[in-house]
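Task: complex structure prediction.
Instruction: return structure tokens for all chains below.
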Amino acid sequence: MNESEWRLLEDKAPTGSLTIAGVDVKPGHRVRLRPGKRGDVMDIALAGKTAVIESIEQDYEGNFHVCVVADDDPGRDIGIMRQPGHRFFFDPEEVEPLPRDEAARDTDSQTPTILIAGIGNIFLGDDAFGVEVVQRLSGRKLPARVKAVEFGIRGSIWHTRCSTVPISRFWWTRAPAVESRAAFM
Amino acid sequence: MIEPELNSFDVPDAQQSSADAHSMNPINVIRMAKAMGGELKRILLVGCEPATLGPEGGQMGLSEPVSSAVDEAVTLVEALITKIRNGDESQ
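Output:
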């Protein structure tokens, strides 16, 4: 793309709002994705999902494109940061604005999202502690917006590096018969 | 449980920040996330000191004392979830 083409594109500033199916939608609003029939495999995967409008863009011809981040995309944080791979563009007629109460359900909620990451290597004996705890937790009922997931990275670094990690709060759950000095999850 | 101070992690320069899948550990992951512009929110760490990491060839399964600490950790994590969801920052 040459410079004049870039300029053409930059002249088309993102739009603050758009009327879709008689509803005024803005970035931050939630929609349900209804990709057109001639879509690709990603459209098939995304059809019916709910998403948040990240921005509303315009192309050379002045056509509007609704850029969304899918609610259940594990990489949705990356999409919100406008990084590639987690933002998807749809024509305005391919998105269905959600009713306000449903649209407000997540975005207006003050409930924090919590990830419980089980860290540890299951081939290194007790390093698997975090993985074991998460496995136990995933069998229990967790509240909405709380996820327990195994992360395969090594945990034992905390053992050797704990003294060099500045810590603002510090106390231990004491394992029976184990002097608790390091953290593994 | 400990709460690492996230501001204290240096952001590595471009040379150091390449990811080595065999040396990923929580500290490296936090550093990398920062280097890539990720926003770090609150991180709490719940853990237990290992009695053994196994022989050189590795070992599957937890030792008896660590295994018996799992339930306590589950209870602690669930208590933390409740506290965080209730907006209790004081722990």
